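Dear support,

We are seeing what looks like truncated structure output for some complexes. This example has two components. We would appreciate it if you could run it in full and send us the complete C-alpha cell output so we can diff it against ours.
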Amino acid sequence: MSPDVLDGFFRATQYDTIFAVAVGCLVGLIVGMIPGLTISTGIIIVLPLTFVLEPEISIALLLGLYVSGMTGGSFSAILLNIPGTPSATATAIDGNPMAKGGEAGRALGIAITASFVGGLFSFLCLFFISPILADVALQFKSPDLFSLMIFGLTIICSFAAKSLVKGLLAAVIGLAVVTIGQDPMMGTQRFTFGQVNLTAGIHFLTALIGLFAIPQLVDNFADIIKGTDEGNTTKIKSVFPKIADLKQMRLPVAIGSPIGSFLGILPGAGGPIAAFISYDYSKKLSKNPEEYGNGSPQGIAAPESANNAVTGGALIPMMTLGIPGDPVTAILIAALLIHGLIPGPLLFVENGEFAYGVIFSFFWANIFNIIIALVGLRFLVKVLIIPKTLLMPSIAILCVIGSYALRNNFFDVYVMFSFGLLGIIMRWLDMPTVPLLLAMVLGRQIEEYLRVSLIASKNDITIFFTSPFSLFFLCLAAASVFWSFWAEHRSKQEQKQQT
Amino acid sequence: MLLLCAGYAYLTSNLPSRDIQNSTQPSFFPWIIVACMSLLSFALLVQGLLPHFNSEILPRSGIPAKRIAIGLVLAIAYMVALPWLGFVAANILLFAGLMYLYGEHRPIWVVIGSIGISVAVFILFREVFQIRLTAGILEGLFR
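Here is the complete output from our reference environment:
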C-alpha cells in the first residue's frame, strides 16, 4: 500500500478534520432539507468560512455538506412532497405516500440507510478508480488535455441545456468572461478597461455566488406568492429501519449504487438522472412493481442510493482530470484552487496524501451522514418551520459577505450582483447557467493548453488529431454534441406530434 | 447576442499584439470565441425563424415583476451605500427591505430580525473568522 494512502487516512482522521466533516454533514442535512436551497447554495454560504481554514479541513467540511445535502433533500421530499434538492424528486414518488400513511419515520430511515450504502459504494469506486485514472491521465500532453477539456465542456452543455445552442452559447459567454484580465501566456491585459480590479480577472467564486444565489432568491419570491413555502412536518417516531426493510432494500440498492456511481463519473449526468434511472430499473426488476408509486420502500431505496452514489462518482473526474461533474464539484475545484491546489492527475503525484485525505474524508462524511441523520432527525426536521422571511435575507447578506471576503474588496460585491442579474436574465431567456459556470472553471486551462500545443507544434493544428488520446476525446466531444442535437430534434418532433 | 458578439469582436480587434515567433497572439483565443459566438447566435436566429425549431414558448406565470424591480432598486441602493454605511448598517437596511419583500409586514419582527441577524453575522465573521469587514458609520460601536 502506498504511504500516501496511510498518510491520507491519518490526515482525514485528525480530530479537527473529523469535526469539520461532522459540522459539514449537519449543515448539509439542514440545507438539503430546506426547499429552495440547493447544495450549491449551501456550499456558497459556507465557503467564506473555509478561507481561514487549512485545505484538508475546508474540503472535509464541504464534502460533509455535499454528501449530507443529498440525503437531506429526501427529508422534505418525504415529509412535504417538496424535494429539497432536484436529486430527491424521485424519492417523493413513494416517500410522501408512506409519510401520509403514517410511516414517515420508516420512509426516512430507509432513505438514510440507502443513502449510506450508495455513498459507501461510491467511496470504494473513488478509492480504487481514481489512482488508476490519474495514472492514465499522467500520460496526457497539452493537446490531449485541451481535447479533454473540450469534451468536458460539450458533454456538460448537452446535459445541462434544454436547447443545445443556448447551452453552447452560455458556455461561450463563460469563455469570454474568462478572457478578462491577464493573458495566461504573455501577461497582456485584455478587456480590463484600465480597471485595476479586473487585472487578475473575474474571480470564479464571485460569479458563482451571483449566478446561483441571486436567481434563487428571486425564485423564492414566486414561491411565496404561490404559497408553496409552508413547512408542516409530521410527527416522527422511530427512524431505524427494521430487518424486513433492509431485506427489501437489497435489490434497489444494488441497482442504484452502481448506476449512481457510473453516472456520477459522467460530467453533467448528475443526481436527478441517476435517481430516476435507478427508480425505473428497480421497478422493472421488482417482484411487486405495482407497489411503486403507492409508498413502496424499494421506490425510496433505489433513487436514494443512486443520488448519494453520484457524489463519489462525481469526485473521480474532478480529482483525477480536473473536470467538474456537476456544479458542486465545480465549486469544490474553486475551493481547492483558493488553497493553491490544482485538481488533476498531478494532485496524486505532488499531493498524494492530500488526495487520499480527501477520499477518506469522503468516507467519514458518509459515516457521519448516517449517524447524524438517524440520531438527530427528529430535531433536524424542525428547520422546516423556519420562515423564508428570515432565511432568504440571511442568504443575501451571507452572499455579500462571501464575495467581499474573497479579496476584501467592494468591487467583488458589485461583480457578484452583476452576475446575479446575468443569471436572472439567462433564466428569463431559458438559457442554462451551469455551462457558463463550468466554462469559467475550464476556460483558462482550455486557452493555455490550446496555445501551448500550438507553440509546440509551430501552429500546426493537426497536433490535435495525431495524438490518439486527443483524437479520442475530440471524437467523444463531437459525438456528444451530435447526440444532444439529435435528442433535441427528436423531443421537438414528439412534442409536435402530441399537439 | 449578435450585438454582444460585435462588441466583443471590436474590443478584440483593439487588443495589442506581440512580435514573438511561432507564438499565438493575446487576441487568438478571443477571436475563436467571437467565431463560436457569432456562429451560435446565427444558429439561434435561424432556429427562431424556422417553424420546425420555433416551439411555442409557454407564458411564464407567477413571476413577481414588481417585487423583482423593487428588489433590484434595493440592491443598487445597497451597493451604492455599502462602502459608506459599512456592513452593519447597510445589511440591516437590506435585510429589513428583503424581509418586507418576502412578505413579513409586522414592524417589530422586521426590526428584531434585521438588526439581530445582521449584527450576529457581522460579529461572527469579523470576530470569529477574522474577516476584515468594515463597520462604516458604526465603526465606533464595533471597535
